[in-house]
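During the second year of the project, the team shifted from modelling isolated chains to modelling whole assemblies. The rationale, set out in the original proposal, was that interfaces cannot be judged from single-chain predictions alone. As a representative example for this report, we include one of the complexes processed in the last quarter. Its constituent sequences, exactly as entered into the pipeline, are reproduced here:
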Amino acid sequence: MQLTIRLLLIGIIGFVCFLILMALVSATLRRLIHGWRYRQLDKYREVYKAQFIPLLQNGAVFSKTDDFLASPRSNKFRAIEEVLLDLMNEDRYRDNVKTLFYKLGYVDFYEKKLRSRNIIVRASAIDKLGKMLSSPSVSRLIEMLKTKNTETIAVTVRALSKIKSMEALKGILDHLPTLLHESLIAQKAMNTALTSFGVSAVPQLIECGRKHSDTRILSSVLEVLSNTSSDRNACLFAVEHIRHSDAEIRAKALKVLGNIDTESTTFDQNLMLPLLEDPVWFVRLQALKALGNLHYRKAIDFMGGLLLDQNWQVRDAAATALTKFGNDSIDIFLKILKYRDTYAKESICEEIEKTKFSSTLIENLVNENREIQAKSREILHVMHSLHFSTPLREYLKQSTNEPIVKEIHLLINEGSEI
Amino acid sequence: MNEIVIAIILLFNYFVGAYYGVVNLVYSILLTIALFVILRHIKRMKYSPIKDFRYSPETPPITLIIPAYNEKNVIIQTVESALSMNYPFFDVMIINDGSDDGTLETLIKTFKLNKIDALYRNVLKTAPVKGFYYNADIPHLMVIDKERRGKADALNCGINVSRSPYFCSVDADSVLEKDALIRLMAPVMESTVPVVACGGVVRILNGVRVEEGVVREIELPRSSLAMFQIVEYLRAFLFGRVGWNFMDAILILSGTFSLFHKASVIAVGGYNVKHVSEDMEMIVKLHRFHLKHKKPYKIKFISDPICWSEVPESLKMLGRQRRRWHLGLIQSIVEHRRLILNPKYGKLGLLIFPYYLLFEMLGPIVELLGYIVVPLSYYFGLLNTDYFLLFLILAIFYGVFLSTIGVFLEEITYRRYPKWSHFFKLLTYGVFENLGYRQINSFWRFQAIIKYLFGRRQWEYIEQKGTNQNNKR
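Output from the structure prediction step:
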């Protein structure tokens, strides 16, 4: 028994030594092989880059494709691929490089890999086809969306979004309900991909949004529209959804409306006013941002009420939005600054300072309009009394406008007497 | 009497044999998993979505919160590194936690900051804030000066001021790689289950050449103590955490460089100021909260975002650091003891907590008892010299094996130490790490247990020399 245990221990020690040795040898060999391989790749990359650029410039590249054919496992194959992918970043070469990938057999090679059972091999191939902007592969890539593998789907959606064809977009949108419903892709990843299709995707996105009532789809569509479009169709679509039962959809619809270019597209902005009283705080917040962005002056009084909202994010957003209306918002600020709620007053002062509205107020100290001058002075006075005096002190340091400097000195001295 | 002592010694010897066997079995399992996972991860990086996320309006804004207490020597390099991130929307917040070495003045002078009026919302209660400093030309940098109350309190202060949905805690003696933040955010963007925390790899800054907050040249440090720590960190990050992450069982993410979902952190009450190891405590609280409320969540560790951080080069400072880490571990395990073997908490209660209790927390006690029992066994004639030597050789060789595999994993994956001399030096230190360094670590951990038992549970300050302070800016 003792001998067996002893032999067992010696055996384990021997095995551990063997593993250490194996790790050492394989790391050393790997280092040597990689060193050699990368040196060769660097050399090839340099050589082929120098050859491709003049050929692409003089249009003779397609007559010399035979010179660049290589076995898929070779370093030459990989180096050419890297050089061409690099050249693809330049607009002037893009179309020719796309064709080259096809003629040199890269597209064919990676399309075959799509059949692999190994997820990593398959995903790498999908990614490469996307990077090569291989439009003929779109239908095959769309097939990949039918797999239930999240990794494959995420890479496929990204690849299709790089190719950017309408067929690719349609493929994604057709599968969107299943992908989102079965949580096969994260919403943020999907939105990133859809956003990269740009403005040309808007009609199809809206059509998709109208076809499905699933909140996840609507949320994605509205989010993408808020990042890509400010046109009439997006506006109409958003207006249709500002009364949706789901708060997230209402907020996202407002986000779209906040980005609408009102010079070219008109819509009834009064529709947004009831959302300033929405029970959900982030809808109120989004309504404030939208109305502030659109400079909808009729909303000033409604927005002023939110300076006393129970949620601090809403209060801050209200102050920020109101500062965008310039002197038109002075009355509402003054009204709230006369309230007893110190916390609300401090929030307003902070936002006035942060948004640089304080600069407007300081300039107003010599405004010809006596009323604006007096009201601006009063706001600055309250700010000073609440220790938000930095803009005044900074102005004194930097400016030589005597009348304003004099006014500020007076204001500060009054403040110190309080 | 002698018979009882002999029986106890024999029993202990069997216990140690079994204990050692189980610990090494766990390590072997983690190692095997890590080997497969990390190689797959490297292949996956070829089609990683990082580039797309870098320009996506969908990428969530993030605040880098850097607590600083007496970090005058290193803070500028850290801030420069943080400001140079490749990330679409981020801001950097330095919380000066009552430094008295001129940290605040250095920041004000270097970045031409002005005191501004800002409102402090004390959502997570903290020590009073004394001032906000800002420069309109560097709009995404803010320095907050507050009264001293420790790192956890400083982080809570940063959370209160931050306006982003996510924040990343970064130590004041660290340099981030340019893509570190976007890589750390990738799991959040890609996961269909909410990721509430995500940690990256911490590497050792000592010896590395940094220019304008960017790592320019990687060299190994001259200090042997720092070298041992490199091997130790490689092992801990490249196979320990990768293995636990695969099992969705991460209990520790380094506070040096981890990302958190702000609302989740606020929901669990922020960082616990009474804990000396606030990072582990936060992860435990996040696990516990989500499991208790049956909310879907993930806590992830990924091995490609890299943060370079300075480590102590003196035994005194290293001892302080290790005692603090172990004290923090004990505090968390004791405070959340209800989780142990509680099926309601799934893997956390049935696997992770028992493992940390038995093998991480109590490990130093078993080791120290071993040092006592060996001479006793010899005295009572119970020690079979052959067996003892074989076990000793096996223990040392297995330790060397683990260190070698750490270096091996680094070699086949990220290869941040490119020279042949680096490779051989790391391997050499991997061997010698098992002859003294490991034992002294166990001693510090044992000291932490004693300190805990005697109620001395305060934070031990580690002075940062700023080994890279002569680097160009």
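Residues 469-473 of chain B have pLDDT under 50 and may be disordered. The CA atoms of residues 33 and 246 of chain B lie 8 Å apart.
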